[in-house]
Design brief:
Helicase, Ruva Protein, domain 3, 2 domains, about 20% strand, two-stranded antiparallel ribbon, seven-stranded mixed beta sheet, about 35% helix
């Protein structure tokens, strides 16, 4: 049976800096996030970093069952006291190492993932989740506003970068809700944004070799101030750039996601 709110208040949890903990407390923001999810009772939902349960409780009011991934042992113990295992499955550990394939095998359905992600791991966690895009229905995350701006940036923009290209290749993305620091305890020093990511269908993933695609993108943005003929040396020759109609004097942020796919595919001779 769930513990009462009074029982939890007797054991206050101190946010831990090493886990990047900023707990969502604004009830209006919580309600907006839940509304954005448009939940169905049987959805297979995973919450990353449930914290003190600001989203966990409202999610369980609408779902038959919820999976959570949590690294903090004190929070895990709190969740175990509050929610029975037939309603909440707790996966103890670091989300950066978590194998989401385990959940697909267990549920046999596409996963929906939600979370107020720690800012200090948000970018590597997004790249980790790219590996599981084929089994994901959608994802909704609270992230640092600056990160979301990079995710949805367009070519030619100063914040358009490797993160933009790699995520836009895999997902359709939309910024849904801007959230001020006052919505959290403790308040972070930055604004936040809720973003939706929906995997693109397989027929739109047209890179012949996705490892080569990733390598071309990484090389281009590793030295983003350099012209492509210099930054891509060894991966794409100047003659290939010319054949594809890409000026060798272009810089990394000048190309679109489709351009990077064409560059990666050009070596295949197809």
């Amino acid at each position: 049976m769930p513990l009462t709110a009074t029982a939890d208040r007797l054991r206050p949890h101190r946010p831990r800096k090493r886990f990047g903990q900023h707990f969502l407390v604004d009830q209006d923001v919580i309600a907006c996030i839940v509304a954005c999810l448009q939940l169905q009772r049987g959805d297979r939902m995973v919450e990353i970093g449930p914290g003190l349960g600001a989203l966990t409780g409202p999610l369980l009011q609408r779902l038959e069952h919820l999976h959570v991934v949590e690294i903090d042992r004190d929070i895990i113990a709190r969740l175990q006291r509050r929610y029975p295992p037939d309603r909440l499955t707790i996966h103890a550990g670091d989300a950066l190492d978590f194998d989401f394939d385990r959940l697909e095998a267990a549920t046999g359905a596409r996963l929906r993932i939600v979370g107020n992600l720690p800012y200090n791991i948000s970018t590597p966690l997004l790249f980790h989740l790219v590996r599981f895009a084929r089994m994901i229905g959608d994802m909704h995350f609270m992230l640092q506003r600056e990160v979301v701006e990079r995710m949805v940036a367009v070519p030619g923009c100063s914040v358009f970068g490797r993160l933009s290209v790699m995520l836009q290749y895999r997902f359709e993305m939309e910024a849904l809700l801007h959230v001020p620091p006052t919505a959290f305890d403790p308040a972070p020093r930055v604004d936040s944004t809720v973003v939706r990511l929906v995997p693109r269908p397989p027929e739109k993933l047209v890179a012949y070799d996705e490892k080569r695609f990733a390598a071309v993108v990484a090389a281009a943005f590793a030295q983003r101030r350099k012209m492509l003929r210099n930054s891509l040396g060894g991966l794409v020759e100047s003659s290939q750039l010319a054949a594809l109609g890409v000026a060798s004097s272009c810089r990394a942020e000048d190309l679109s996601v489709a351009d990077y796919v064409r560059l990666a595919n050009s070596r295949q001779g197809r």
